[in-house]
Every structure is written in structure tokens, then in C-alpha cells.
Design goal:
By secondary structure, the protein is of the alpha/beta class. The chain folds into two domains: 22-47 and 193-343, CofD-like domains (Rossmann fold); 52-144, no CATH class. Helix content is 37%, strand content 16%. The chain has 13 helices and ten strands. A seven-stranded parallel β-sheet has the order 3-2-1-7-8-9-10, with helices on both faces. α1 links the parallel β1 and β2 (45-50). It starts with 21 loop residues before the first strand and ends in a 7-residue tail after the last helix.
Length: 350
């Protein structure tokens, strides 16, 4: 049988017309992937800083068996940075492909195995991720927020339905993301994890920093619990955008209003200011309350249609949970581009 070959032209970076804004996006999961898919359309200088507290699925199994960082959210970020040509689409599908079997490979993602193999070969998290990005023709760089695996722990009121006022500790990102009850606070173990130096440098050197969207307590806020990274976010001269979810996430932020998301973030990172809060205009029933909550963070509110048409429902499932409303990359790109142009400092990239 003749051997089939796949001939693809390797994706190049977009042509640069002068300098472009240096953008750093922080988050995890499909929320960060949505942001990256938008941002790569408007800048060629893009860095993703990804949470490393995942302990479920393929990532959790690899973490437990090999003691490595969970690769899943890093893989999703790399796939989101792939281009829209044949090379990019093919590699995005390959790294996201999951095996289906009755054996040990079941549900492992190809990209997870590739990333872990390069970590073992090279002994360097950043160098390995850069090499995967080069292979994929990724339109940006992907970095872990910390070089050590982290455990997420949450204080949850009403986790036990029989004790609705009691506060329990829920351990593990996968459990926190789906926990019943009201999440009051999250923390990391270890409590003082080292940040990846390249991630800190990227934040300090950025023109814009984008935080969110994504699972609020398990993908967004964890970045603010890494001391060196939080210090960089406070000290950077970059302007900061906080990008809100389309709907609350069942379990983790069930019943949260848009302004409540801002309030809990501020409680975890006092004195961290933002310049702009971006929200879908159809997902904000009380604009006045959101404007006031944003003002307390030093930010203005930008409302824009950023959801895939016809998908926003305040009672729907969250994007991060894998169903329901999703951000539209092109609409989100338009919103980011307008924010960068309207609120950006005059500089060489303007």
C-alpha cells in the first residue's frame, strides 16, 4: 500500500508593519485559548502565561505518574496560537487529538505526550515549549506561570448540603471547578511558588496585559497567588485588561454577577489596578453596578459583542466547562484592537 504523505507549507508569522504592541495574556483552559485566538489576529508579539494547577484528566494522570507540570492548559494555548492555514489547522488538530482505547493511552492528548517527552529530553520547561511552538508555527510564545506543579485549595461555604453554613476545604483544580456551594477563597500549595523568570520578564516588558476570561477561581485568580507574578503585574508599566466570562460557571461561580467577579478578584489581590474591564454587552444586566465595581479597580468598562452570535444566555453553561456560550475570536479581536487603540499610550507601536 503506498505511503501517504502530507505536504504542508509551514506557517510563518504575520507580516509586521512596524512595531506591534507587546501583549501578555494570562489564564488557562478554553478561556485563555479564546483570548489567544483573538489576540494573535492583531499582534505578532504575544506571550501566554498559563496556570499549572490542573490535576484532572490526561494532565492529572501524567502529573501523578511522572511528577511533571500538568501540560493540558499549555497544550490548549499552543493550539490556539496555530495559524489558520493548512499547517496551523493540521497541527492544532494533531496536538488536541485524544486517543480512544481500552488501555493506558485512553483519553491522553497527543500534545500532552509531546510536551512531556520534550521536558524529559531537554530538562527545561521553557525551551521545550518554545520548540513545540516552533514546530506548530505558533503565533506567539507559551510559558507556565510556575515551574513547579501546584495544588489549588478552596474554602467553600455550603459544600456539604447538610451543613449549608459550614466552610469546607476543597482540594484540586478539577474539584474546585465543579464544587457545589460558594467559593470564598482560593490558595495555592506551596503557598509561595516561584514564578518562571521569563513570565515575569514578559509582564514587565509588555505594552498590554490581558487577564481572563476563564474559570475565575481555578484559572484566572491563581496567577495572582504567585507572589513574583503579582508583583510584576503591579509594577509593570503595561496597561491591564480584565476580560470577563460570558456566563457564570456552574459550581465555581454559580449565581455570580459580572461585578461579583471583580469583587472576589480584588479580595485576592488588593491594590492591583486595571485600566479596562471588557464584557459582552448582552451579558451585563446591570451596567451601573459593573461600572462602579470597575471604578474601584481604577478601570473603565468596555461593552462589546464578543460572543459567538446567538449563544449568550445568562443561565447557560460556561465556556470553560466545555459547553454553552463561547467567545467569537474575530469579534473578540475587534474588541481588543479597539481597546488597544483607544486606551493605549502613544508609543512606537501606535
Amino acid at each position: 500500500m503506498p505511503r501517504r504523505t502530507l505536504r504542508l507549507r509551514r506557517a510563518g508569522r504575520p507580516a509586521r508593519r512596524g512595531a506591534q504592541p507587546k501583549v501578555v495574556a494570562l489564564g488557562g483552559g478554553t478561556g485563555l485559548a479564546a483570548s489567544l485566538a483573538a489576540l494573535r489576529r492583531i499582534t505578532g508579539d504575544l506571550t501566554a502565561v498559563v496556570t499549572v494547577a490542573d490535576d484532572g484528566g490526561s494532565s492529572g494522570r501524567l502529573r501523578d505518574e511522572l511528577g511533571v507540570l500538568p501540560p493540558g492548559d499549555l497544550r490548549k494555548a499552543l493550539a490556539a496560537l496555530c495559524g489558520d492555514d493548512d499547517w496551523g489547522r493540521t497541527w492544532a488538530e494533531v496536538v488536541q487529538h485524544r486517543f480512544a482505547s481500552h488501555g493506558e493511552l485512553h483519553d491522553h492528548a497527543v500534545g500532552n505526550l509531546l510536551i512531556v517527552a520534550l521536558w524529559e529530553q531537554l530538562g527545561d520547561h521553557v525551551q521545550a515549549l518554545d520548540l513545540v511552538g516552533k514546530l506548530l508555527g505558533a503565533h506567539g510564545r507559551v510559558l507556565p506561570m510556575s515551574a513547579v506543579p501546584l495544588e489549588l485549595r478552596a474554602s467553600v461555604r455550603g459544600h456539604d448540603p447538610a451543613r449549608p453554613l459550614a466552610v469546607s476545604t476543597v482540594c484540586g483544580q478539577a474539584n474546585v471547578a465543579l464544587t457545589p456551594g460558594e467559593v470564598r477563597e482560593v490558595r495555592l500549595v506551596p503557598s509561595d511558588p516561584p514564578a518562571v523568570p521569563e513570565a515575569v520578564a514578559a509582564v514587565l516588558d509588555a505594552d498590554w496585559v490581558v487577564l481572563g476570561p476563564g474559570s475565575w477561581f481555578s484559572s484566572v485568580i491563581p496567577h495572582l497567588l504567585v507572589p513574583e507574578l503579582l508583583d510584576a503585574l503591579r509594577e509593570t508599566r503595561a496597561r491591564r485588561v480584565l476580560s470577563l466570562n460570558l456566563v457564570p460557571q456552574p459550581g465555581e461561580t454559580d449565581g455570580f454577577s459580572p461585578q461579583r467577579h471583580l469583587e472576589v478578584l480584588a479580595r485576592h489581590a488588593p491594590k492591583l489596578a486595571f485600566d479596562v474591564v471588557l464584557a459582552d454587552q448582552a451579558a451585563v444586566p446591570d451596567q451601573g453596578s459593573l461600572v462602579e465595581a470597575a471604578r474601584l479597580l481604577g478601570a473603565t468598562v468596555e461593552l462589546a459583542p464578543v460572543a459567538a452570535p446567538g449563544e449568550v444566555s445568562l443561565a447557560g453553561r460556561s465556556e470553560e466547562s466545555g459547553g454553552g456560550p463561547r467567545h467569537d475570536p474575530e469579534l473578540l479581536a475587534v474588541a481588543y484592537d479597539r481597546i488597544f487603540r483607544m486606551h493605549g499610550r502613544i508609543g512606537p507601536w501606535r
